[in-house]
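Schema walk-through. Below, the input block comes first and the output block second. Nothing else is stored per chain. Lengths vary across the set, and this one has 209 residues.
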Amino acid sequence: ASQKNSMALIAQRGHLRKRLMDVAGAEADFRSALRSGALNQEQAAAVDAALFDLAMSAAYKDFNESRLNEAIEKARAAREMDKKAEAPVRLIAEAFSRQGRAQAALDELNRYISQNKPSGRLLAQRGYLRRAMQDLKGAEADFEAALAAPDIEPSETLPLRNALAEATKAEHDSIMQAELAEVYAAIATRDYARAVKSARALRVKYPKG
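--- output ---
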């Protein structure tokens, strides 16, 4: 009983040190209390959550100061503490994006989404990334899913609706340009009958194009 009380006090000191921004001291107390095995389930869960917060705070600090590799490493460490948490995944993907590693960012988001139920914000993040990578249909799907998600705030709705409209228009324009290229290809080969037929079909399909 005395050991349990002692470890509970050490964990309590860890929480106090965390509030006082003594990161090293807080982490030392939390890990010591966890290693003892003397905490009850509620106390251990609170310590785990506090350690996760510390790891993510360090990752955000590195990210905000443009130490992107360090931010990725610390966010990955946080993810090991809570594999269902979105925050590390979102930070890792954003850091990859800032490094110009769009595919790595997309892989990170896809991996999480394939194994968990994503929030609207995570879907929106992937939507913006897909749009930047010219995957317009994928971006549309993500924006639509994000708008339907319960965690999206009213202030976030308008930017998402605008992004969806832009992606839809860009996809429409891309398809129309590809079909128009077929008309030019027919003209280049002097297949004027096919060119006229294709042009008329385009006029019917895109009367305002």
